[in-house]
Design brief:
The structure is a single chain. The protein has one domain: Glutaredoxin. It is 39% helix and 16% strand. Strand 2, helix 3 and strand 3 form a beta-alpha-beta unit. 29% of the residues are buried. The N terminus is likely disordered.
Length: 153
């Protein structure tokens, strides 16, 4: 195995471990009410994204492409990725809608959607099926996913 592959495996393991163990020093994710990212609850998710109680198959309730950031306050990679998500939300403005879901507060939603690792981003095109990423991704990868999955330049 190449040294690059080993390094990638080690970094991935560290990220998984850091998000699966609760830190005693919990830092809160800042939620700016006037910011570009909208905090979601289970009810708002069902109204704006996907009502899994009414639909057995995926049916996006929105009209604009969207990103949903599933995070936890205690997860360091989640906090780092949330900063990038906020930057991207500002950069793309009205072209996309960006939401975030606190997995500790919205456990039912987290289970129903199948989020099993943090951070998880869900990329939802206006038409088509959502695609998930799990773990921290750099801003370049985030922008590439917006371009390729959400079809936004």
């Amino acid at each position: 195995m190449s040294s690059r592959a080993v390094l990638s495996a080690v970094v991935a393991s560290i990220l998984i471990i850091s998000c699966n163990s609760i830190s005693n020093n919990r830092a809160a994710v800042v939620n700016n009410a006037d910011g570009p990212v909208v905090q979601m609850t289970t009810e708002s998710f069902k109204k704006l994204i996907y009502n899994y109680d009414k639909n057995s198959k995926w049916k996006y309730e929105g009209t604009k492409p969207a990103i949903v950031d599933f995070y936890a306050d205690w997860c360091a990679p989640c906090r780092e990725l949330s900063k990038l998500v906020e930057e991207v939300a500002t950069e793309y403005g009205d072209k996309i809608v960006v939401y975030r879901v606190n997995t500790d507060q919205e456990k039912q939603l987290t289970e129903k959607i199948g989020v099993s690792g943090l951070p998880t981003l869900v990329f939802i095109p206006a038409d088509g099926k959502p695609q998930f990423t799990v773990g921290y991704i750099p801003k370049e990868t985030l922008k590439k996913a917006i371009k390729e999955v959400l079809l936004i330049n």
